[in-house]
Every structure is written in structure tokens, then in C-alpha cells.
């Protein structure tokens, strides 16, 4: 007798709705923070160069920051900006009491070493969580650190979908400092068995296929195909690539071939409307966290 496997009804995780809930939560906390400390949290965003996609993100960040009741300070610098000049701006913002969070939009133009700039941000203002102090606190599970926005957003989405991650096999595809590595640390803290597949991994599909949780952050559009997916897996798709369509317009796709995941995955985040909005919501959350940390450093 032939076994009949009925296709799974894949749940599409509504990142926009989750992000709206987080933003509302932050807005209320910001209001309380203002009442108690007579201070409004302020976020400085620095964009070097004029990449149109980056300009859209940065503007979107400013709008969301205002929505949460916080102040937003934009610094748009020309692509010709020198590393020394950028570092001077970062240092000025480090010492500015109105600024609680600093985000330097990546990637930076050639000729500016991103490590020099990121490690120049005061750790308690580093809302991207990329400073060695914050990365170290995450790895050691120490309090008082800031967790990178995208992995934090992915964690919140997973926590809202999965009661307990203890003992689950989580596979992270991509090992960047911004997403893959901190994501793996967070999943480890949740009690997952964690595998990281990366550019040199020999058979990434075989590794990915073991994941009860599959987080994909490679920037490689539609890398993950149907056979990479364990039936019933929860997929978090961090990738976002704009591709041209036949009618001369563009559309966004993730690192997962979405149509192929339907019917196999248990749940999946869409692109757009999945991880992206949560990243911005968590940036707001980190800005409030940073403002709270700065109160502690004053006492
Ligand atoms: N220092 C730094 N920190 C970052 O966190 C950072 C960065 N640099 N450089 C660029 C990437 C990219 N990124 C996104 C944030 C939100 C959406 C987002 O809101 N996406 C919408 C779609 C937006 C659209 O329509 O283009 C969505 O997925 O629904 C996307 C991408 C943060 N990044
Ligand atoms: Mg981020």
C-alpha cells in the first residue's frame, strides 16, 4: 500500500503585525521613561554615500523612531567622507547627552574600515550590538549588553510561535557578525542544538534538512529549495533582495524559495513583511535599552 503524505498547511508569520505590537509596547515604555527621567531617548543614524535602498531604510527608521515617541537625528554624509571625519562624528555623538543610540548604516564606502568605526562607538550607545563588548556579553550571557536588531527580532518571532525551543535542532545558514553569529548564540541560550552552515560548508542542504528551526541569512536570493527543508520546520528568512520582474518593475525575494517552502515548512516568515519590520521595531527597543543603560552609567 502506498503511504499518503498529506501536504502541510504552512502558516505565514505576520512580521508586520508582530512589529506593530513591539512598537506600541516601546511607545508606552518611552512615555514612562520620559515621565520618570525628563529625557526623551534619541537615535542618531549615520548614512555615508547615496545608495537609494539604504536611503529608503534610513528614512523608514526615522519615521518609526518618531512613531515610538523618540527623537531621531539623521546624518547623511557624502561617499567621499574620510574615515577620520566619520570617526570624529561618532566620537562627538558618543559624548552628546541627547543621543542614546548610534547606528552607522552598513555597508560603508570603500576606504572606510567598518571595524574601526563600529569599535569607535561607545558600547552603551551601540544599538546594532556590534561592538566587541556587546558581542562578548552576548556570548558570555552577561547582562547589560545590546543584542543586534535582526537576530533579536528573529528571536521574538520564534518565541511567539514556539512554546519552548529546548532540545530543538536549530540550523543557521550564514555566519555574519550582524546576523548569523549572534543568532546562533541566542538559539543556544534557548536550549537549541545549533548548527551553523556557511560559505565553506560542503553540503548545506543536508545540514539545513535537520533543522526544526531554520534561520537563513546569506543575502543569496532563493538559495533554500524544497529539499533543504525538514517537514514541519519553522523558517525565518532574513534575506532580502530586489529583483526585476517581466513588467519592468521590481519585487523583493528572500533567501528561501517561498513557493517551494509552502506545503513543507510548518511556518515561514514572508519577504517582505517578515523579519524586516521586526528589525526596525527592535532598533527602537534597543534605543530605549541604550537610554536605560545610560541612566545606570550616570549613578
Ligand atoms: N548598521 C546596520 N544595521 C542594520 O540593521 C542594517 C544595516 N546596517 N544595513 C542594511 C541592513 C538591512 N536592514 C533592513 C531593515 C529593515 C528592512 C525592512 O523593513 N524591510 C521591509 C521591506 C522594505 C522595502 O519595501 O524595501 C520588509 O521586509 O517588509 C529591510 C532591511 C537593516 N540593515
Ligand atoms: Mg541590525
Automatic annotation (TrEMBL):
<keyword id="KW-0560">Oxidoreductase</keyword>
<dbReference type="InterPro" id="IPR020631">
    <property type="entry name" value="THF_DH/CycHdrlase_NAD-bd_dom"/>
</dbReference>
<comment type="function">
    <text>Catalyzes the oxidation of 5,10-methylenetetrahydrofolate to 5,10-methenyltetrahydrofolate and then the hydrolysis of 5,10-methenyltetrahydrofolate to 10-formyltetrahydrofolate.</text>
</comment>
<keyword id="KW-0521">NADP</keyword>
<comment type="pathway">
    <text>One-carbon metabolism; tetrahydrofolate interconversion.</text>
</comment>
<dbReference type="InterPro" id="IPR036291">
    <property type="entry name" value="NAD(P)-bd_dom_sf"/>
</dbReference>
<dbReference type="GO" id="GO:0004488">
    <property type="term" value="F:methylenetetrahydrofolate dehydrogenase (NADP+) activity"/>
</dbReference>
<keyword id="KW-0368">Histidine biosynthesis</keyword>
<feature type="binding site">
    <location>
        <position position="199"/>
    </location>
    <ligand>
        <name>NADP(+)</name>
    </ligand>
</feature>
<dbReference type="GO" id="GO:0000105">
    <property type="term" value="P:L-histidine biosynthetic process"/>
</dbReference>
<feature type="domain" description="Tetrahydrofolate dehydrogenase/cyclohydrolase NAD(P)-binding">
    <location>
        <begin position="148"/>
        <end position="294"/>
    </location>
</feature>
<dbReference type="GO" id="GO:0005829">
    <property type="term" value="C:cytosol"/>
</dbReference>
<feature type="binding site">
    <location>
        <position position="240"/>
    </location>
    <ligand>
        <name>NADP(+)</name>
    </ligand>
</feature>
<dbReference type="Pfam" id="PF02882">
    <property type="entry name" value="THF_DHG_CYH_C"/>
</dbReference>
<keyword id="KW-0554">One-carbon metabolism</keyword>
<dbReference type="InterPro" id="IPR000672">
    <property type="entry name" value="THF_DH/CycHdrlase"/>
</dbReference>
<dbReference type="InterPro" id="IPR020867">
    <property type="entry name" value="THF_DH/CycHdrlase_CS"/>
</dbReference>
<keyword id="KW-0511">Multifunctional enzyme</keyword>
<keyword id="KW-0378">Hydrolase</keyword>
<dbReference type="InterPro" id="IPR020630">
    <property type="entry name" value="THF_DH/CycHdrlase_cat_dom"/>
</dbReference>
<comment type="similarity">
    <text>Belongs to the tetrahydrofolate dehydrogenase/cyclohydrolase family.</text>
</comment>
<comment type="subunit">
    <text>Homodimer.</text>
</comment>
<keyword id="KW-0658">Purine biosynthesis</keyword>
<keyword id="KW-0486">Methionine biosynthesis</keyword>
<dbReference type="Pfam" id="PF00763">
    <property type="entry name" value="THF_DHG_CYH"/>
</dbReference>
<dbReference type="GO" id="GO:0009086">
    <property type="term" value="P:methionine biosynthetic process"/>
</dbReference>
<feature type="domain" description="Tetrahydrofolate dehydrogenase/cyclohydrolase catalytic">
    <location>
        <begin position="13"/>
        <end position="128"/>
    </location>
</feature>
<feature type="binding site">
    <location>
        <begin position="174"/>
        <end position="176"/>
    </location>
    <ligand>
        <name>NADP(+)</name>
    </ligand>
</feature>
<dbReference type="GO" id="GO:0035999">
    <property type="term" value="P:tetrahydrofolate interconversion"/>
</dbReference>
<keyword id="KW-0028">Amino-acid biosynthesis</keyword>
<dbReference type="GO" id="GO:0006164">
    <property type="term" value="P:purine nucleotide biosynthetic process"/>
</dbReference>
<protein>
    <recommendedName>
        <fullName>Bifunctional protein FolD</fullName>
        <ecNumber>1.5.1.5</ecNumber>
        <ecNumber>3.5.4.9</ecNumber>
    </recommendedName>
</protein>
<dbReference type="GO" id="GO:0004477">
    <property type="term" value="F:methenyltetrahydrofolate cyclohydrolase activity"/>
</dbReference>
<dbReference type="InterPro" id="IPR046346">
    <property type="entry name" value="Aminoacid_DH-like_N_sf"/>
</dbReference>
Amino acid at each position: 500500500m502506498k503511504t499518503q503524505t498529506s501536504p502541510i498547511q504552512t502558516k505565514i508569520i505576520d512580521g508586520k503585525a508582530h512589529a506593530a505590537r513591539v512598537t506600541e509596547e516601546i511607545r508606552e515604555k518611552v512615555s514612562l521613561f520620559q515621565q520618570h527621567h525628563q529625557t526623551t531617548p534619541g537615535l542618531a543614524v549615520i548614512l555615508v554615500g547615496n545608495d537609494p535602498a539604504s536611503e529608503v531604510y534610513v528614512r523608514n527608521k526615522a519615521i518609526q523612531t518618531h512613531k515610538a515617541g523618540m527623537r531621531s537625528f539623521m546624518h547623511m554624509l557624502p561617499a567621499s567622507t574620510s574615515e577620520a571625519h566619520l570617526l570624529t562624528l561618532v566620537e562627538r555623538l558618543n559624548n552628546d547627552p541627547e543621543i542614546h543610540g548610534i547606528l552607522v548604516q552598513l555597508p560603508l564606502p570603500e576606504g572606510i574600515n567598518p571595524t574601526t568605526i563600529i569599535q569607535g562607538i561607545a558600547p552603551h550607545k551601540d544599538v546594532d550590538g556590534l561592538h566587541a563588548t556587546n558581542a562578548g556579553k552576548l556570548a558570555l550571557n552577561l547582562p547589560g549588553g545590546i543584542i543586534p536588531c535582526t537576530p533579536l527580532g528573529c528571536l521574538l518571532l520564534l518565541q511567539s510561535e514556539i512554546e519552548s525551543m529546548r532540545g530543538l535542532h536549530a540550523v543557521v545558514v550564514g555566519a555574519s557578525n550582524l546576523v548569523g553569529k549572534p543568532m546562533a548564540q541566542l538559539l543556544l541560550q534557548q536550549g537549541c542544538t545549533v548548527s551553523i552552515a556557511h560559505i565553506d560548508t560542503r553540503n548545506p542542504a543536508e545540514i539545513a534538512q535537520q533543522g526544526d528551526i531554520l534561520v537563513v541569512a546569506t543575502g543569496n536570493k532563493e538559495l533554500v529549495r524544497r529539499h533543504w527543508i525538514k517537514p514541519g520546520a519553522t523558517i525565518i528568512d532574513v534575506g532580502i533582495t530586489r529583483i526585476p520582474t517581466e513588467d519592468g518593475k521590481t519585487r523583493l525575494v528572500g533567501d528561501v524559495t517561498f513557493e517551494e517552502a509552502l506545503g513543507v515548512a510548518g511556518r515561514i516568515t514572508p519577504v517582505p513583511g517578515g523579519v524586516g519590520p521586526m528589525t526596525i521595531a527592535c532598533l527602537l527597543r534597543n534605543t530605549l535599552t541604550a537610554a536605560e543603560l545610560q541612566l545606570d552609567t550616570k549613578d
